[in-house]
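Researcher: Go.
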Amino acid sequence: MKKNKSPEVESTQSPSQLQAEIAELRRDVLQLQMENQDLENSLLTAIEHGDLIETELLELNKSLKSEVIERKMAQATLQSILEIVYRDKSDLEIMLATATEHGDTIEYEQYNRAVETMRQSEEQFRAIAESTSIAMLVSDIDTGLISYANTSAGAMLQKDACDLLNTSVTDLYYLETEWLELKDYFVTNQKVRDYEIRLNRGEQPPIWVLASLHLLWLKGKQVLLNTFYDVTLLKNTEIALRESESRLREQANLLEQRVEQRTHALKKAKESAEAASRSKAAFLANMSHELRTPLNAILGFAQLMLYDQELNAQHQADLQAICNSGNHLLTMINDILEMSKLEAGSVLLRLKECYLYDITATVREMLSLKAIEKNLELDVSIQPDVPQRIYTDEGKLRQVLINLMGNAIKFTNDGYVRLRISVEPDPHQSLDNALENVNTLLANSNSLCLHCAVEDTGVGIEESEIAKLFQPFVQTASGMRSQEGTGLGLSISYNYIKLMGGQMSVESRVNQGSVFQFYIPIQSLDDCVDYTIKPHSRIVGIEGKQKYRILVAEDMRFNRQLLARIIAPLGFELREVGNGEEVIALWRSWSPHLIWMDIRMPILDGYAATSEIRKIESSLNMSNSQKVKIIALTANLVDIQQEDLLLYGFDGLITKPFTEEQIFTQMSKLLNLKYIYDSTPFPS
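Model: Structure:
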């Protein structure tokens, strides 16, 4: 099913207002992008800083844990010795008590040895306890009173060891609730190892320790051995690490929120810019139609009047001036519209068979008058090995040559302008930035690299200006002095060559001249069918006796009259209508061979009318030879794509303003016409 073309949107804003609005939106988008990038950089910096802090803390944590392991081993060894010492003392005391109860006789020396052993064991215990850095306390199980405290215990708690004696061990704990939890754990398990808890330290902040509690026998009584290992530094490090992670997480969340806000703002700005861009496209489409439609009538009728032999030389010169000025205006309009399409990425490559010699001849004929007026030598040289038939984008190649040679003539006052064309065997070796799709298309035995160089002896270009030479709306100092052109020609040419898979460069010296050159990949063609009408003489009729019915569908009266004036003298049967409904009705009743269909018409536009005709033809099972040929007419170059026109059923496209050559060429291709010429020169 064919899709309906959406109606064109008309803009009420002026070009300057639209350009200012678009520029402002672009600045907003750029500012938001920069702020968004700053936020992302801040986030990355914060994360990297956090990772660095975390790495340092983890290394410190690892070091402290190693120290803890070493001290734990020392503590375990010490506790083993203490257990042996107290077990020996307990065994001796039990043995003495048991022997006394049974009335056994013990030698005095044996008793003294046992007492000495106990004394030595106690001395060994004290020596070991005083030499360790672990705080050691012995307390009563029932009352909790401390009966022994080593020097390390006093240092840890910032007291003298003797001041700890006869004080309750429970007073050492920072919080009663923590002590009760530790006590419950001890009652349940009968011992505690490495229990993390806090101890009081006077006026100083509490310290974190690993507490261990063991039951021991001392002088026939069971006591509690309390050992504490200071892990305050380790604990503070872990707390600092957690706090740092929390702060970093909060900062990351905050930055992510700001990034999200900026992204949302950027999205809104982008939507506004896109809306403005659509408004600009609608404006350009309308301007294209409004400017090119009357220009089509001006140039068309001026061209027809040039054939009037009754006009005197002055009138002929005046008409030629009108044509020249109109073509100059058309060139400027086309440049502005084409640059807009290039910026939007909507310019497509249109490869086809063409004649290189005809392209250069057309360029020379267009520019020769300007060269003669300035008394310049205009020379075109094509090397013998350059193929005559090539496969490339003819329109873009011709436009680039016109732009480069036209510029050369404009900025040259004495001397010459020369075009040199040669070929190289392999475009892949000459083009570093050739587009992949172009190279793939041209990758066969006939692939060549076309080299074109335009040399002049003009005013030259300052070295400082060369870097910005191919930017749009940029003119050199000499270009601004000339007050000609839009500053778009070189930019368009540069982008065309890039689109064609080639590259362009320039060499220049002030007051000595310039050389603009480019390379593009092409194919050499041995044979091609050419329907182009050669502009050497005027067409006055068609061969054969068949009468062709031609329908012109155009809502503008002047444009209908212009087409009729061009076509009618050749003997065609001609009818005219002003909207799509009339086209369909007349097609049903009159069966024209060809329809010139304007795209933009009231009631029913050209898209809808063409789609309806093709739908009816399909329902009647018409063959291709029976179907009417339909050529689209449009003054809009902004959003018209030839591929889209084919989907609607059009067979060709002519853009306004058009020439006799374009009209007759299209009719020749679609109706297979052969023309009759006279000797009257075709106007340039």
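Model: Confidence is low (pLDDT under 50) at residues 1-11, 101-107, 427-442.
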